[in-house]
Amino acid sequence: TTPLNTAAKAAGKKYFGSATDNPELSDSAYVKILSDSTMFGQITPGNSMKWDATEPSRGTFTFTQGDQIANLAKANGQLLRGHNCVWHNQLPSWVTSGNFNAATLSSIITTHCGTVVGHYKGQMYSWDVVNEPFNDDGTFRQDVFYNTLGQDYISIALNAARAADPNAKLYINDYNIEGTGAKSTAMVNLVKSLKAANVPIDGIGVQAHLIVGQVPSTLEANLRQFTALGVEVAITELDIRMTLPATDALLAQQKKDYQTVIAACRAVSGCIGVTIWDYTDKYSWVPSTFSGQGAALPWDANLNKKPAYDGIVAGF
Ligand code: XIL
Question: What pTM was estimated for this model as a whole?
Answer without folding.
Answer: 0.98
